[in-house]
Specification:
The protein has about 190 residues and is mainly α. The protein has one domain. About 75% of the residues lie in helices and about 0% in strands. The chain has six helices and no strands. The chain has helices spanning about 1-45, 50-70, 80, 85-125, 135-165, 180-185. Helix 1 packs antiparallel against helix 2, helix 1 packs antiparallel against helix 5 and helix 2 packs parallel to helix 5 (about 135-165). It is elongated.
């Protein structure tokens, strides 16, 4: 169990670093988008390459941060149900969800994503748009992101099993107040 928990901690560390780094891609995407919009409006000059890089960066944010989101328990879930369960019952729900949904779904995507990426890479696929970019770097994000998500799903299952076995602390099953919750608190409701 110690080796599995060490593996889970390593996956957590990897995905935390990648997730935090991918946050900077949002700023880069906004700067590219704003620069392209300004050059188009003020100078009547635009670039398909800039449009395509901003799409690729936007996709990178979601694909690379998905595992980090799962790790931080900020993914979409049925909090109405899980929030009413004991920590042990919530851990069981997370184990079942990981084994029946997260791991099989990410495995299925990986089975199809690797050939999709490899064919693009081997052929040197380029966008059909004038001045467009190579497509394989964006397509590489799909298997990379889903590999990270698969690893994080496995790490979450390991951590929940360890909790049930009394070998790890209680998992955080509810997230901190965000968005609408914070607004409601500020309004005094």
């Amino acid at each position: 169990m110690n080796a599995l928990l060490a593996f889970a901690r390593a996956v957590d560390g990897l995905n935390a670093r990648i997730g935090r780094a991918s946050m900077w891609l949002i700023l880069l995407t906004v700067l590219i988008s704003a620069g392209n919009a300004l050059s188009r409006k003020l100078l009547s000059v635009s670039s398909n390459a800039l449009l395509e890089i901003q799409w690729t960066l936007y996709a990178a944010v979601f694909l690379l941060a998905a595992a980090y989101t799962l790790q931080k328990n900020e993914h979409v879930r049925i909090d109405v149900l899980v929030g009413r369960l004991s920590p042990r019952a919530g851990a069981v729900v997370d184990i079942i969800g990981g084994l029946l949904f997260v791991l099989p779904f990410t495995s299925l995507v990986l089975v199809y994503a690797w050939p999709f990426f490899l064919e693009s890479w081997r052929s040197g696929e380029v966008s059909n748009n004038p001045g467009g970019l190579m497509l394989w770097p964006g397509k590489a994000l799909i298997p990379l992101g889903f590999s990270l998500l698969w690893l994080q799903g496995l790490a979450e299952v390991i951590k929940r099993i360890a909790f049930l076995a009394g070998r790890a602390p209680e998992p955080v099953l509810s997230h901190s107040p965000q968005g609408e919750d914070m607004i409601l608190r500020e309004d005094g409701q």
